[in-house]
Amino acid sequence: MNSNSSSTTLTTLAITIGALACGSSDNDSTGTTSGTGSQGENCPSPGTMGDLETELQYFLTNGDGRVTTFDDPSNSDRSATPIEGSSCSYRIRYNSTQLTQAGPWVLEFFLRHEFGHAFHQHETIGVDRRMQEHEADAYATRMLYHQFGSASAQAMVNWFSGTGAPPDATHPSHATRALYMSDVLSRVQSTPSSIPTPPPTTASVTVNNPFGQTVNVYIDGAYAGWLFPGNWNFAVLPADYLVGDSHYIEARSAHTGFSIHGSWGLLYGGQQYSWP
Questions:
Q1: What pTM was estimated for this model as a whole?
Q2: What is the Cα 41 distance to its own chain's centre?
Q3: Mind listing the pLDDT tens digit for each residue in 64-120?
Q4: How far is C-alpha 229 from the chain's CA centre?
Q5: Exposed/middle/buried for 111, CB within 10 Å: 0-12, 13-18, 19+?
Q6: Is-contact 17 112, C-beta < 8 A?
Q7: CA distance 184 to 30
Q8: CB within 8 Å of 21: residues ≥ 6 apart
Q9: Backbone CA torsion sign across 164, 166, 170, 176
Q10: C-alpha distances in angstroms, 269 versus 158, 181, 201, 247, 251?
């Protein structure tokens, strides 16, 4: 639930969060809970961001005693694991040496990021996995700002911007995360109670075909669809692939050998591309 998978140090940050879901028999079809744990205890309602002091008290009190942290030098497992014999409780394991070596504020950020998952009770509610990461990033960004000032939060925005890790099955790309964290930081500085809406998990790009022949369109090397001559069409892609300063687009025909390419930048997708 923390960093994206990659061969680089920055994406092997070795924080794990574990939670025993609040009773599978109490879950409805959407994954939300009624508030009763598997051991009969009542689970607290998921937290709602908007009050910095409330969010900070959750962190300072270890989630009202429901969150346990372990600094484990051997830890490298980033999967979710349950806490046996308990309900609605969370265990965060992290490798402080590895995180500290990854850069300034990385340890502080990712520890709070994992607390953000616990704060929102992401293991017990039905929320899109990439949205969960954005919510946890927002919590961590707000806590860095509240505890250490805007420079610490901006440093992590810059860190994500500079790493370039791609999206995976459960995590947005670092570029997308940086853009949203920047929105969160800007908002908390002006209106602390306001939380910006995370970016969509998919987006569309509309492409035209002025070439007089049917072509296949590829975006960043991935097939996006085909176009009749003169038509506009669109492809729905993971939004992560539509964020950044430069993307490669190509139209080509296997029958005639025709090929043309261009590049463009998009913010959260949803724009038109017209060939130069």
A1: 0.68
A2: 31
A3: 888 888 888 887 654 334 354 455 788 888 888 888 888 899 999 999 999 998 898
A4: 38
A5: buried
A6: no
A7: 27
A8: 27, 33, 38, 82, 123, 124
A9: positive
A10: 21, 17, 10, 11, 19
